[in-house]
Amino acid sequence: MANITKKVSWSSRGDDSGLTGEGTPLLNGSEIPKPSRQLSGSGSVFRIGRFSTVDLEDDITSEEDPIRGRPKEIPHNEKLLSLKYESLDYDNIENQLFLEEERRMSPMGFRCLEISRWVICGLIGILTGLIACFIDIMVEKLAGYKYQVIKENIEKFTEVGGLSISLILWAVLNCAFVLVGGIMVAFFEPIAAGSGIPQIKCYLNGVKIPRVVRLKTLVVKVIGVICSVAGGLAVGKEGPMIHSGGVVAAGVSQGRSTSLKRDFKMFEYFRRDTEKRDFVSAGAAAGVSAAFGAPVGGVLFSLEEGASFWNQMLTWRIFFASMISTFTLNFFLSIYHGKPGDLSNPGLINFGRFESDSVAYYYYEIPLFMCMGALGGLLGALFNSLNYWLTIFRIRYVHRPCLQVMEALLVAAVTAAVSFTMIYFSNDCQPLGPERNEEYSLQLFCADGEYNSMATAFFNTPERSVRSLFHYQPGSYNPMTLGLFTLTYFFLACWTYGLAVSAGVFIPSLLIGAAWGRLCGILLASFTPTSPIWADPGKYALIGAAAQLGGIVRMTLSLTVIMVEATGNVTYGLPIMLVLMIAKIVGDYFQEGLYDIHIKLQSVPFLHWEAPATSHWLTAREVMSSPVTCFNRIEKVGTIVDVLSNTSTNHNGFPVVVQVLDSDEPAKLCGLILRSQLIVLLKHKVFVELARSRLSQRKLQLKDFRDAYPRFPPIQSIHVSQDERECMMDLTEFMNPTPYTVPQDTSLPRVFKLFRALGLRHLVVADDVNRVIGLVTRKDLARYHLGKHGLEELQLAQT
Question: pTM (2 decimals)?
Answer without folding.
Answer: 0.85
